[in-house]
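Worked example 4.2. Below are the chains of a multi-component assembly; read each line carefully before continuing.
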Amino acid sequence: MYELQNVDKRFPGVHALKAVDFKVNRGEIVGLVGENGAGKSTLMKIIYGAYQPDGGVIAIDGRTVRFQNPRQAMDHGIGMVFQEQSLITNLTVMENIFLGFEQQFVRFGVIDWKAMTEAARHQLAKVKLDIDPATVTSKLSFAQRQLVELAKVLTLEERIDGDLVILLDEPTSVLAREEVELLFTIVRELTNRASFIFVSHRMDEVLELSSRIYVMKDGEVVDVVSHDEAEIDAIQRKMVGRDVDKQYYREQKQKPYDADKVLLSLKNASMGGKYRDISLDLHAGEVLCLVGTEGSGREAILRTIFGIERPDTGVLTIKGDKIARFSPQKGVACGIGYLPRERKIEGIVAGMNVYENMTLSQMGNFASLGVLHIGREKALAEEQVRSLAIKTPDIYKDCGGLSGGNQQKVVLAKWRSGGSDILLMDHPTRGLDIGAKEDVYDTIRDMSDAGAGIILVADTLEEAIGLSHNIIVLKDGEVQKHFAGAPGSKPSLYDLVHHMI
Amino acid sequence: MERIKPHLPWITLVALIAVVGIANPAFLSPASFIVLTADVVPLFVMALGMTFAVYIGGIDLSVQQLANLVTVIATVYLMDFGIGVAVLCIFAGAGFGALSGFVTSRLYVPSFVSTLAMGFVALSAARWLSGQRALHMDAEQRDASFGWMFENTAGIPNELIIAGVLLAVCWFLQTRTTFGRSLKAVGAGELAAVASGINVDRVKILAFALSGALAAISGLVFSVKLSGGDANLANGFLLLAIVAVLVGGTPLTGGVGGVVNTAIGTLIVMVIRVAMVYLEVDATQQQMVFGIVLIVAIALTIDRSKLKIVK
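Applying the procedure described above to all two chains together yields the following structure tokens:
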């Protein structure tokens, strides 16, 4: 009933969508998967009216339509549930639900709050959310907000007569398992009225929910698989265009670390409101994972060791050198490299090119008396681009224009080439596609083989378990438990979660 | 649009020169061009300094008052130090600038406010030092120490050569040194610069010190040119210096553009001034025109992706 035929979209320098055919039947749940940069978000933006296609046809029930903006798409029954939550946190739930559509409740120029409350309650019931519509949104949990987003889109049911198409963009990324189940139940129940397009990085969820799955790569739909014949491995291979290593986390490459050589040791460190009485040792060749929920103190510990934050008490010794004044300059001078979670803000400098970014932490090595040897910088960058397989047209390209994975590789190259032998990695694979993730894992193994110590805050628990020699589980800023993780005797997910919550 | 943006400044300049040249062919003669260019040297030097403050994403509103102060210092101490007064002036300017930089980076006062306040300090110092009078240089001493500035070398005024040398030095600093690279990093992505172990506070203090030092040189040249000093001598420079930096293509958000852009920007200001004289725009209205030009330039150049909220 909703159909895209031959849809094309170009941006300066990028052919983002190449003759894409896409179809959603009435009451169907369609999955959409692809690596970052495969064109998923462009396709979605065209569907909900944020972009207009350069070529091709959008048709609803066989009639050609054209949307100038998302509001027009909504008028045709197409709604979007955003990944980056679009709710305004200081408004109440009902104000958010009817944002921009308050006119229906206006009597004599003022809003009839009672009517809006009733209507909001009706919407919330659709998503089985039992909260007071007058609650301020910031008080809700992430899962509840996600459901409010869905409820907001479902107001289309009353406003629009025909069929609905609802896009779900990574709706599960902030949800716990049972919340995901709840969301899926709701979505399935709603298929009597609406069709869904479900976009997610979590392949198992896509498989579970979708009746058909569109696989995208490089702006094209490379395959459409039905629910019954879908296989995770086959789909991943199509997305990446090659086989995905069974040994995803490179466990076979994990070697014992040098227990006699302590690179860094933190003793009884505390920082008000962030963490309490933390002690840890990092050895040469070790990958040490800090595991815990958001706010358990993982990030703050990394930032303390790097020198961006200062502990209230505690002693940090790096290679036998006791740190008196904490600062990133000192950290870098001691051979620490930091891969921040906010890659685009703290990792790379957007507006500077590849070689400028790579030498930013080590300009001293490429200068005499403050005068840069730019030729040597370029040579280094060429070499790193080759050895890490960084996808960039050349080393003069603005790093802000690279994809997430390649930006991360530039940051890795910066520290690796600068001789850092202690690496602090905060979600190094966040938002990366499978190919880039594997490259990061390979680099981690290579660096720890070469004797570097790595403290890792992983993106997922599986990643933490797979990559680490040792795991420290944190909860509310305190150490709960240590796990050793030699290949073959790694702790299970359950072991960890048990201590996290 | 994004692709031609970096070229807009010089295209604007060429277009303006062409328009003014057609209306008034005398403008295009090399001799008059040299005279006009030499005339804007003090402004250019000030704008050159300002470029560093803007390049790191700040602004230096104290430059005009620093130049005012320096005209007084130069005039008062010329008799005692001769040409050595230049060193005193530059140190004074750099000192004030460094102080602004310190207040900005260590005390977290936005440069907008810290330099504005520092400007008033300098203005007040100038008034106190001059006793609120217009001072005059001893003509003999002036010619002995700085007379060379207004001579020619190979037909080119030495003033222009000074400007050229300063531009070359600043360009070298900006493009070829670790300091220049750090400036760019701070302007384009300060948090990433911090996380790369760059001493960002020091970079900022140095940038403002440089801005102050160049404002001082600007004041000195201007003072020698007019053979005197008073606390209001350089008034009217500030707006033009900001316009020169911004129309040159160094946006308020920092990280792009640079000193060569400011050279182009200064020439644009010069041509607009000439055009206004030719069009007989009243002197009292010229600031209006530059105010509007400034707003247009900011609106065109600013990188909105770096600004989440503007208040």
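Take a moment to check your reading of the output against the notes. The mean pLDDT of chain B is 91. Chain B touches chain A at residues 2-3, 176-179, 181-182, 184-185, 187-189, 191-199, 255-256 (CB under 8 Å).
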